[in-house]
Structures are given as C-alpha cells and as structure tokens.
C-alpha cells in the first residue's frame, strides 16, 4: 500500500512500519507530500519520523491501538460487512438524543451502548448524537481534547466497534450523528506541529494558537479537516456531524472554511443518495450560518440554540447569574421571543458580553427546524460545579413542563441522555490525563473557576478522581422506578404526539402565536390546530385559549377541556397539549 504524509518543511521523512524503516520520497504531484510503497495489512503498526526525530502517529491515522502517543495501525475499511441497507434519515422532523459513550453505560464502550439502543427506538427519538470519539489521553473523558481526528478512541472499542454501533442503530431506524472538534486539539498527544503549519499564531483562542485556516499552508489544513469530516460520513455511514464551537474557528479568507465544508458534505450527500447534515454549535446568533450558500450564507443545516435553553432554564429555576441575567429579567417574555423569533439576542444588548449581540433571523426564510431546542446538554449540565441535572432541583411536574416546551416547540428537539427519565445521577466534568502536570493544572483550574463564584474547593469534584466518572454513569435501574417511570412515559407521549400531529413539526416560525403571564408564570402557544400550555407556578392557572372546540391530547395532571368561555384551568407545575381544530 502507499503511505503518505504532508510535511512541507521537512528535509527528510522516514516510515517506520512493523519494525522496518523506509525513506520516503517527495510526491511529484503534490507539494509538501511524502510517499512510499510498503506491504501492509489491517492492523499493521506504523509511524513517521520527521528529520530523524521521534516516531510519531500518522496525522491521518485511522486507529491508535495504544492511545494518542503510540504508533498508528492500518485499517482496512472493506473488512466490515454492513448488514443494513440504510437510505438515511433527514434532519427535518427529527428528535435527537445526545449520548456520551463513556457514561451511557457502566462499561463505557460502543458495544455496550449499542445494546441499549432499543430503549431509544422505543422512546421515539430518530437520531443518536454521539459526543466526540477521537482518541484522547487515558480511558475516560468528555472527548473534547481529542487528537487523531480520523480515529476512534480505543477504550470505546475502536473503529470496528463504531461500525457495529452504526449498523445496530440503523437496524432500529436510528440515524447517527457525531460531535467533531475542529477548533483545537490536544494538548496532550498533539504532534501535528511537528509535521507542518497546522496551527497559526496569527489568531489566538482559549486553547492557544488557532487552527490554521487562513495563513500559509492553510489549504492543506482545511483539506485535512474536511477529509476527516467526509471520512466519518463515508466510511462509518454516519448521518450527520455536530461541529463544536464554530465561533472559535478564526478564518479571514473570502470563502469561509464552514462554507467549503458544507459544500463538500452536500456533494457527498448527492453522490451517496443519503441526506447528510451539519449542525453547528455557535454563540454568535448569526442566521447566516444556517442560510443556504446560494442565498449568501455558509450553508450549514442547523445550529444549537442556546438562547432558547437560557430562557427556559431561567423560567424553570429562577437562576440569574452570568449569561442567564438578561433572560431572568422576564423569563416568560424571553421564552416567547425565542419561540417566535428564534434568537433572544438578535441585536439587543447583552449584559454578559457588555455589548450588543446577535442578528435578527428572517422568520419567513429560515425554517425553525434549523435551530435545535433543548432543556439540558452536556455543556449546560457538566459545566456546573457539581454537574447537577435539572432533576436535582426541580419537581417532576416542572421537568414535565420543560419536556413539553422542548418536544412540542418549533425547534428540532434534542435530549441529553437520561433526562427522559429524570436521571438521579449527575453528569460531572471528568478527565484521565496521563501527564501529571496537566492533570494537576486541570484540577486546580476547575476549582479556581468555581471558587470565584463562591464554591468551596472541596465541593468541586476532582476531574481526575475515577469516582467522578463513575458517579456520572447512568443508572439503568431507574427507568422502572417512580418517579422516573412516569417522567419517561410523559416523554414517550410527547414524542408520539410529534408524529401524530403535523402541526408540531411545521417549520414556519411566523405562524406561532404566544401568550404569557410573567407574574402568574404561565405560557401558552399555538401551532396550527394545536395549543400548548405550561403552568410553572405551584398554584393553578387560568389560561384563555378561545372558544373553539377543544380536545385534551396530553396532560401531566388531569385537566378538563376549556370551559364555555374558552378558559383552560391548569394545575400547578403542569404541561398540557390541546387540539383545537
């Protein structure tokens, strides 16, 4: 087979393959590339040495059997026989489920997670969104400090296990989305700078030098990232990618990296005959991100909508610190604005940022399904000092209200693993750094961060303590017990209603009508012939729905249809879905 590597500044590159050493030659057709032919098969170990330096993993390694610091291994993609003939599943009409492989089960592997996919099919979700799978130091971690962007973390089961997982998911009718991180790598195990200008000092990020998207050599860096993205979609038959923190991608070129990536993914979708999509995490509130390229946008297919989360969180909890401050002034009003306009900050002043933020979204042109709505995510739970879920502080009734707003609202819903049964386990920040200095730096940094917000150091879990990860594993005995079973049944009913009522998947934001009472803490909205009402107060609320005939489709507590004057009496901490044709 031909081994190849990009090392534009090297004077000499050698291949180390199964104990043998071979000098590599310049590729006459590609500047900066080195090539050599050598016999190899699936599992063959190899690495590259630049200018007689240490042997390093292949930047495009498909497998790292011994972790990020070990040699790479050849992967023969043709060895797996796909069992399912999968034609894909589009994003519009989807219900996503964010899943962390290392804590979804106690075993923490892809194979163990695959055994639990039947639960998701029964729940009614359509896509599993896997948190990052690229190799990282140690065994357990969130995955956002991965390296080897083409490989699968070996403790999860490696590339073969991912293919088995995808096959199992597709067999159950579930699409699979993968969270990928292009904005930084490492730091531990990141050897890319030894090969070429993968990073640039022209821009700086919270993680140091920026990934090189616009400096000299950036053509190859962009090709490296796009090639990795396409490999996940092509070789593993994934249905989409979630792009981490795209606002941290510094790029001054005329054709933005994200525009180039979206064009490449759309081309692969056309070639494969499967719908493929990109979902961005972005805090810019810029609708150009999800506007088609032909209309002057970047062409991504959707983005997470933190504004909806923040409005919902403040309405449920009353929290007002940090970025919640603007939403907490009038949380029901903030919810109403996001439900009808997508963003809360659409050019308004953000006290958290100390400036105006965002850009208005054209409701007539942007489909609501291009925004993801959620009450919890790995970020919003795990970046709390103790990783406490909403279930740690809210009643089952308020959790039901949160589910009602997420699953009947206009956005593509996304759940965070375990929320569907009000999991009693936290989801905390954990690492397994093998570098003692880095481990201690992360531990101290985490405690300093929360000490500034009034937390005692001893109350902040140690990320390096294995017990922190263990506490974060789901307890699969909970769904059969109360109150978890009742919450789970409510999620199932709401997801079923999305399938039964076409109005609940109508992507037209301009057609949504919202009413609310800030003091009484209730909110109601209408989508076509369906009206949704939530009462977040402990006391009953009287909500005017109009005098059209009404049928109760679902209610957390027993609720009678509206009276003759069209008033719906909703018990405290209760969500209701009503049909009014």
Write structural notes for this entry.
- The chain is of the alpha/beta class.
- Helix content is 25%, strand content 20%.
- The protein has 14 helices and 26 strands.
- An 8-stranded parallel beta barrel has the order 8-9-10-13-14-15-18-19, surrounded by 5 helices. Strands 20-21-22-26-24 form a 5-stranded antiparallel β-sheet. It has a 4-stranded antiparallel β-sheet with strand order 3-2-6-7, with no helix packed on it.
- β21 (522-527) and β22 form a beta hairpin.
- The termini are far apart.
- The model has no long low-confidence stretch (mean pLDDT 96).
Quickly describe the structure.
The protein has 581 residues and is of the alpha/beta class. It is 25% helix and 20% strand.
Keywords:
581 residues; alpha/beta; Immunoglobulin-like; TIM Barrel; 8-stranded parallel beta barrel; 5-stranded antiparallel beta sheet; 14 helices; 20% strand; elongated; Ig-like_fold; cytoplasm
First-last Cα distance: 65 Å
So what's the overall shape? elongated
**CATH top level label of one domain:** Alpha Beta
Mean pLDDT: 96
Which class best fits the helix and strand makeup? alpha/beta
Number of strands: 26
Q: Helix content range of the residues, please? A: 25-40%
Strand content: 15-25%
Strand order across the largest sheet: 8-9-10-13-14-15-18-19
Architecture per CATH nomenclature, i.e. the level-2 architecture of one domain? Alpha-Beta Barrel
* Biggest β-sheet description: 8 strands, parallel, barrel
> Which spans have pLDDT < 50 for at least 5 consecutive residues?
none
What's the gyration radius in Å? 25 Å
Number of helices: 14
CATH homologous superfamily heading of one domain: Glycosidases
CATH fold name of one domain, please? TIM Barrel
């Amino acid at each position: 087979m031909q081994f190849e590597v990009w090392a534009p500044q090297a004077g000499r590159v050698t291949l180390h393959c199964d104990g043998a050493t071979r000098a590599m030659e310049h590729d006459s057709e590609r500047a900066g590339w080195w090539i050599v032919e050598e016999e190899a098969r699936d599992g063959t170990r190899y690495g590259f040495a630049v200018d007689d330096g240490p042997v390093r993993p292949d930047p495009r390694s498909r497998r790292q059997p011994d972790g990020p610091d070990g040699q790479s291994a050849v992967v023969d993609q043709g060895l797996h026989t796909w069992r399912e003939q999968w034609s894909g599943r589009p994003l519009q009409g989807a219900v996503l489920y964010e899943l962390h492989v290392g804590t979804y089960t106690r075993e923490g592997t892809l194979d163990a997670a695959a055994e639990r996919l039947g639960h998701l099919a029964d729940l009614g979700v359509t896509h599993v969104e896997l948190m990052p799978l690229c190799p990282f130091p140690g065994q357990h971690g969130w995955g956002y400090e991965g390296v080897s962007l083409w490989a699968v973390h070996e403790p999860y089961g490696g590339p073969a296990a991912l293919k088995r997982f995808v096959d199992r998911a597709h067999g159950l009718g579930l699409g699979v989305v993968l969270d990928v991180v292009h904005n930084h790598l490492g730091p531990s195990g990141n050897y890319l700078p030894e090969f070429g200008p993968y990073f640039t000092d022209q821009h700086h990020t919270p993680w140091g030098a920026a990934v090189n998207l616009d400096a000299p050599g950036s053509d190859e860096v962009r090709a490296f990232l796009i090639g990795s993205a396409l490999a996940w979609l092509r070789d593993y038959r994934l249905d989409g990618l979630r792009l981490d923190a795209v606002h941290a991608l510094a790029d001054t070129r005329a054709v933005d990296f994200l525009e180039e990536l979206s064009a490449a993914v759309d081309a692969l979708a056309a070639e494969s005959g499967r719908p493929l999509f990109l979902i961005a995490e972005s805090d810019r509130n810029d609708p150009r991100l999800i506007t088609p390229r032909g209309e002057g946008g970047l062409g991504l297919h959707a983005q997470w909508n933190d504004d909806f989360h923040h409005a919902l969180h403040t309405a449920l909890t009353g929290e007002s610190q940090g970025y919640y401050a603007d939403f907490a002034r009038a949380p029901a009003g903030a919810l109403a604005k996001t439900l009808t306009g997508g963003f809360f900050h659409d050019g308004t002043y953000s006290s958290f940022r100390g400036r105006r933020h965002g850009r208005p979204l054209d409701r007539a042109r942007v489909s609501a399904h291009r925004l993801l709505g959620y009450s919890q995510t790995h970020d919003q739970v795990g970046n709390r000092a103790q990783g406490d879920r909403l279930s740690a502080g809210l009643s089952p009734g308020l959790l039901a209200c949160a589910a009602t707003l997420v699953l009947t609202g206009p956005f593509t819903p996304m759940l965070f693993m375990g929320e569907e049964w009000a999991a009693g386990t936290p989801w905390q920040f954990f690492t397994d750094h093998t570098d003692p200095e880095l481990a201690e730096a992360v531990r101290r940094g985490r405690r300093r961060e929360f000490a500034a917000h009034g937390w005692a150091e001893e109350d902040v879990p140690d990320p390096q303590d294995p017990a922190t990860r263990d506490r974060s594993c789901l307890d699969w005995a909970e769904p059969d017990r109360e109150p978890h079973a009742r919450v789970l049944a409510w999620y199932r009913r709401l997801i079923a209603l999305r399938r039964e009522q076409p109005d609940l998947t109508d992507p037209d934001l301009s057609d949504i009508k919202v009413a609310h009472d800030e003091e009484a803490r209730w909110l109601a909205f209408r989508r076509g012939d369906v009206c949704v009402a939530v009462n977040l107060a402990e006391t009953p609320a009287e909500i005017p729905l109009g005098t059209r005939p009404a049928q109760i489709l679902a209610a957390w507590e027993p609720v009678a249809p509206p009276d003759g004057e069209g008033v719906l009496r909703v018990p405290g901490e209760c969500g209701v879905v009503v049909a009014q044709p």
